[in-house]
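User: New here, any thoughts?
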Amino acid sequence: MFITRIRPRVSETDGVGHINNTTIPVWFEAGRHEIFQLFMPDLSFKDWNLVIVHMSVDFVKETFYGRDVEIRTWIRRIGNSSLEIGEALYQDGEVRARGRSTYVYFSQRERRAQPIPPDIRRALAPHVQADPDG
């Protein structure tokens, strides 16, 4: 599991004092940073080889400004050319949002999906787990 800590900003807060619902997917993407580095160590866009094909977010409880959040990211499943990522946002020790995203390992040159290389599979394997907390 990968852990990312985020300090909410005033600009991410909506008119009723909650973190805006459009912010949570951005935070989930921030939690994928170490996964991206496994595929593209230098994070260069010229060599970017992951394409997102699905994303969903379930908003469980309100998230507030002024209290740090923790994004927990893990691998739910590794397919031939895709991987499904599980994500959860915690604040004050409670789940505030859950998410899932699916990426395809993609050759920009060939313009098609390609098998995930064995070395990346090995690096991802320790992070494969069932969804924590349901």
In short: The domain at 2-127 is CATH 3.10.129.10 (Thiol Ester Dehydrase; Chain A). The chain has one domain: 2-127. Residues 36 and 61 are 28 Å apart (CA to CA).
